[in-house]
Write a structure and sequence with these properties.
With 468 residues, the protein is of the alpha/beta class. It has nine helices and 28 strands. The longest helix is centred in the first third of the chain and has 25 residues. The protein is rod-shaped and about 185 Å long. It binds zinc ion. The site of zinc ion has 5 residues, from β21.
């Protein structure tokens, strides 16, 4: 019995050895793959792909439990930028046998196109108005530019954009519509922002204000400033208007009151006198005729005429209190003391100082040589420093000594003013025969298109030039 057992064991060992030898000699293996991951993999277009681990084993057919790992050759061809099915092949071999496995990789596109909106932060839509598209573009990774396929619709104050690519992926985005009004009305002038207006005419201010939301708001415009067409000069009008959103607009227009004929500045020195009220009576008849008085203080009983002339719109300037050359041109101080005394009388009459004055004898006088060398040069500079403006004249009525005849005074004036576009005429309301000539001068001037204006600090000064 023992022998039988031993023989049996020997037989088994032999069989094993034979099997092993046969496996080696005849390459009796089965090749099996052990694959991680799925056999069929779906990848998104463009997304990186890494192939999972794959192992292969050679299993002896006669003794399958004695497997051994063998080398796997991989044919790796997955291109994630290529749509559709691709195959990865795995090869493994023993001496005589070869095993093969595959994995399917399917590249698909599930990414919708991207819509980019043009969105200016300053863009807005007027309330009650239709939204005007600001612009957009759409790009798909596969289809490229698909802007022309974008569809939009408006829902609840939003614009909703959609676009679908060739693989059925739909992209969508939306924008909030900003309803607002940030622009004020536009003010416009039919006649431009610099208007010339004939003196003594009526100026009809023409303007219009239109708002993009409210429409015509002309009746809400506030105008500041006034044009006095009776007085030459440049006037500024300021316009302000707001829309219902509180956007304010301002605009400015300048209106220049001009004359196509000459301007005559009649100036009367050495008053007020006993004749001044007569002159003022004449002037009162001509509403738009204004003149200038360079006053002195020698007839206190006539001072009231300074007030009357001022209230009638005529200009008042200082001439002198005493008109005494020997006194006023003796020193700078003496001149200004006399000047201040006259200025005080003017303030008493009119309630305000004047900046206008005329030197007794004019700025070109040589009489001052007798009293003080260089005084006119100094006084002219000092007057400038004080903010005063002095006037001379370019037309003489002749009433300072050449004539005492009313007709001659009239002729001197009308002959003289025809030489100049702007005349400053020297007259004296201390002379009765001059006062008598003035109405005819006015009638002739108005009939010939002249304007009679009062001087102001910006008027033509007719300076002669200083001789001392
Ligand atoms: Zn004088």
């Amino acid at each position: 019995m023992k022998k039988t057992r031993i023989l049996a064991i020997i037989a088994i060992v032999l069989a094993i050895l034979t099997g092993y030898l046969a496996t080696i000699v005849f390459d009796l293996y089965t090749i099996r793959f052990d694959m991680r991951g799925q056999r069929e993999v779906i990848r998104e277009y463009g997304e990186p792909y890494e192939d999972p681990e794959v192992k292969a084993y050679a299993h002896p057919m006669l003794m399958p439990f004695l497997r051994k790992e063998i080398y796997v050759d991989r044919f790796f061809h997955v291109d994630v930028n290529k749509m559709g099915e691709q195959e990865v092949e795995y090869h493994a071999k023993t001496a005589k046998r070869e095993g093969k496995a595959t994995r399917k990789v399917i590249v698909e596109d599930h990414t919708p196109p991207e819509i980019t909106l043009v969105a200016d932060p300053d863009y807005y839509t007027l309330p009650g108005h239709e939204y005007v598209e600001e612009g957009f573009s759409a790009f798909d990774r596969l289809d490229g530019d698909v802007s022309d396929k974008v569809e939009s619709r408006i829902e609840n104050d939003k614009v909703i954009y959609t676009v679908t690519d060739a693989h059925g992926n739909t992209g969508t985005t939306e924008r909030e519509i900003v309803y607002d009004d940030r622009k004020g009305p536009v003010i416009s002038f039919d006649d431009g922002d610099y208007v010339k207006c004939m003196v003594n005419s009526t100026y009809n201010d023409k303007y219009k204000a239109v708002d993009d939301l409210d429409g015509d708001v002309t009746d809400k415009v506030k105008v500041e400033g006034k044009v006095d067409t009776g007085t030459l000069g440049v006037y500024t009008l300021k316009y302000t208007v707001s829309d219902s959103y509180g956007n304010e607009t301002t605009a400015e227009k300048k209106v220049e009151v001009i004359t196509n004929q000459g301007v005559i500045y009649l100036t009367f020195d050495d008053g007020p006198s006993a004749y001044t009220s007569r002159l003022l009576d004449v002037l009162d008849k001509y509403k738009n005729v204004k003149v200038t008085f360079f006053v002195i203080g020698v007839v206190p009983s006539a001072y009231g005429n300074i007030k009357r002339a001022f209230n009638a719109g005529h200009a008042i300037g200082v001439h002198s209190l005493t008109h005494d050359y020997s006194k006023i041109y003796s020193s700078d101080q003496a001149f200004w003391d006399d000047f201040e005394a006259m200025e005080n009388i003017i303030v008493q009459q009119t309630g305000q100082r004047t900046k206008l004055f005329r030197f007794p004898g004019g700025s070109s006088n040589t009489v001052s040589w007798n009293y003080n060398t260089g005084i006119m040069t100094r006084l002219a500079q000092q007057s400038k420093d004080k903010g005063l403006v002095y006037f001379d004249w370019n037309v003489e009525s002749g009433d300072a000594g050449r004539t005492t005849d009313t007709n001659e005074v009239y002729r001197n004036i009308i002959n003289g003013v025809q030489y100049y576009k702007t005349s400053v005429v020297l007259c004296h309301d201390s002379k009765s025969y001059t006062v008598d000539a003035i109405e005819d001068v006015i009638i002739w001037g108005l009939n010939n298109g002249y304007t009679f204006q009062a001087l102001n600090e910006n008027s033509f000064t007719a300076h002669h030039g200083i001789n001392n």
